[in-house]
Amino acid sequence: MQDVALGGSEVPRDPVSVFCLTGLASEQERAYSLPIKISFRGTNFEIGRRLNVHTQRGQFPTPEMTIEGANISLSYLMVGNAGSPRLSRGIFQALMREARVANADGHFDYILHANRQKCLSLLEALEPHDSEVIVTLRQMLYFQLETMAFCIGTREL
User: Fold this and answer.
1) In whole angstroms, what is the distance from residue 55 CA to residue 63 CA?
2) Minimal CA–CA distance to 3: which of 43, 46, 52, 42?
3) How far lies 19's CA from each of 29, 78, 79, 151, in Å?
4) pTM for the full predicted model
5) Per-residue pLDDT at 10
């Protein structure tokens, strides 16, 4: 598994972005949240897929975050990393400490659940269909879910 080079520069990619760029299903080391807007325990999250918009926290690139009251916007959110399975949650926890949001684990679990549900709902919708593109799309979703499974424990930043 490796990141796909785009335009000569390394841009982190996941199975979803590789499929959108190339139409191919490809295993990748990382998985990023689908675009999502959710509310959980009084906090409203808007998570994008702008993988090239980030800041540096120590040695780690992390999403750009904006906070307006109870609204938190992230340019992206890593939700799985085969090479460092504890990193996704660790990054989210560090961001939530900065945002002064309690129960970061609960929020992160809710975001993971929403992402799994979106992937599973799409797989269910594709079930009665069969074409080359559908088979590739299905495989991409399996790769995304598989990479999301590499989100175990926490690594402190």
Assistant:
1) 6
2) 52
3) 14, 17, 18, 22
4) 0.90
5) 61
